[in-house]
């Protein structure tokens, strides 16, 4: 029995399958009705397949970066801007480790295309640090809501975003509302305590 | 005079045993901590690997030419040659290094490989099928009997008869099948490295549990010496026993960097990581156990099997039954070779599986006799193999109180149902060693009062960095913030790999020894200056002074200025073997679970989990507690959720993505209560490792709680809704 494992690359130099696989953005691109998918219907200007200079506004500053249509926001943040707080944990965005804000909404940078973020305000976990540290990361440290810490930046953003929306969240609401992030080391019990401290300590705001 | 090393007397330590925030907490929580995956070098290439799509095959041809033509692809390397046999899906076939992730993916897709299919076997739970497929090998056996065979009697025949006699005499006999599936490590930072060459010297930023031990593994295949390699790992995103080696992908990354003259990052894709970079062996067991009317097991006869991948490798027969060692027992293990990725050490190797498949049997004996499981565990404590019967009894009392066991207990299957929901209680006990590994450190005291310690250790997330700082700060009477801790580089003095809960013992030993020696040297100078005997001096509260006379002394800074121009350098070393006043090994631990089971849906919910754990002298209370919380949650994961699911026909790993590999989320864990068992006697034992023990018993405790709720055993972990419903169905038909 012989099995052939082979993929033909189309002559155009643009391989749709590789695009989807490489970007990890299949779900977003298809379900989200992005400019790129619409481009196939010729309703929008076609971009790519080559690198294109774009400007992204990250943590309040404009940055000139380069992106192909398949480039994810996560790749740009990590490789071009050296903002490595958001982590590449899985290609389908089911871990929450790459959570950042786009236009104030928490999204997975791993499943968001960089080109889709042009003209939008992007905020990363790094914005919660620096000289004035946000109460959420502080509470994470105080309650040791981290072990290896690889999930932690994503979790911090998720908790910050959740508490912004639910400033008086109860423990039950916290347990019900923070299931988008995965931690292998098992820090959930401490994350709950950290989130509660931010609410109860009146530090949420 | 031999140097003396000791800890502060019980109750007198300033830092040890307190809650201290991790010194690297803020960088971790705000995303500035740099993991191997995060190291960016200018001009760096991204490399990814192609895994075999088939579980068992022969590579017959491989053509890289199309891949090399893909725009952005810089290098393509075959990792297997035609003729090579591939024994599991995901084994590495080839690698592409490219300018971007996308170009890499396109390059991988353009690789053309042909395979000849071979017979596949992955059904590790089916002993007879494995025998028929000639996939079994002996895993060892051992028989222990109170009575001995006569001179002219055949040992095996005697054992057979003797066991039968003991079963006939038993008040209750449980006969059954128990099991636990293979699981993966699922480190959130996958295996891999970022490598860079400067002239002929290699820097490997490797995600590793073994900073000091991996340089040589890079060196020999690359034709350089270990001295030309520096391994760095400041932060690691999970290892759990799977990241001790440079691994083929680490060496390949360094090779690609050498060949292309550019830095290269190669981290495994999630699916390849799960398929190829380690798993925990499965365990399945047929067993007969006989007990007296109090539930004391007098006779045990078991045969267990499981797989550690192509090489076989079942759970060691030496830990069956787990912790309990009945006076008469026969046990046998069989290894099954499967076309699945090779196993690697997984937190407390052998123990979680052994506990899950054998302490469930003890609970079924309680059920059969209509006894309280607590009483049956208690009655069997005299047979524990680690001499800790009294500690267990004490810990059981503490745990039962925290769980409110007596008030909540009901006989198996006899609780009050709330609609379809029934609740239940279960428990398990465990044991581990946790003695320190070899460790060296270099402690520096600078003339300006600055203190640092350097060692080639690593912080897996257990808080090692902070614990080291606490040990040194405690010794010098300084606040934790005064000590700089340098770890994560093979350029520092060698310290052991972090496995088997050996790190805290090792690094506490080397740092306490080094710091006590350094302080003795400093005290010589201070003594001379003050005109007092150095051995009357103590360091406390930022000062060095005559004990009992705080005014007669110097501030730490003044004391250090006596060093002159040069810093004081002191090596601290620890080699295990023999008794040490600073560390020891051997812990117990008791865990209890309360669950709610929905009989209509088969869903098990955690209500409460109680963990009582001894660990000798506690260094950092806060991070120690985190280890136990984390272990409980990992235990909930393998008890209820996670399993490696293989397709029996093709041998494909069906759920090798996070989307499909089920793990608990924050809302799934219920209430977790952690209790440190710490009478003064524990403090006096010195430091003992803690990472492994609390992850062992959750499987048994949770399975027993489900059995108590339903009155039926769900025999194989994880206890998925499907399995719970099947067990209920089977119970109905029985
Ligand atoms: S802390 Fe390690 S994965 Fe969450």
Structure, briefly:
The complex is a heterodimer of chains A (205) and B (734). Chain A has 205 residues and is α+β, with helices and mostly antiparallel strands.
Write a structural description.
The complex is a heterodimer of chains A (about 200) and B (about 725). Chain A is an alpha+beta fold and about 200 residues long. In chain A, about 35% of the residues lie in helices and about 15% in strands. Chain A has eight helices and six strands. Chain A has a five-stranded mixed sheet, sandwiched between helices. In chain A, helix 5 packs across helix 8 (about 190-200). Residues about 1-40 of chain A have low confidence and may be disordered. Chain B is built from 19 helices and 29 strands. In chain B, helix 13 (about 465-475) runs parallel beside helix 14. In chain B, the strands form seven sheets. A seven-stranded mixed sheet of chain B has the order 3-5-1-13-10-11-12, sandwiched between helices. In chain B, a hairpin with a 5-residue loop joins strand 26 and strand 27 (about 605-615). The longest helix of chain B has 28 residues, at about 505-530. At the A-B interface, strand 1, helix 1, helix 4, helix 5 and helix 6 of A face helix 1, helix 3, strand 6 and helix 16 of B.
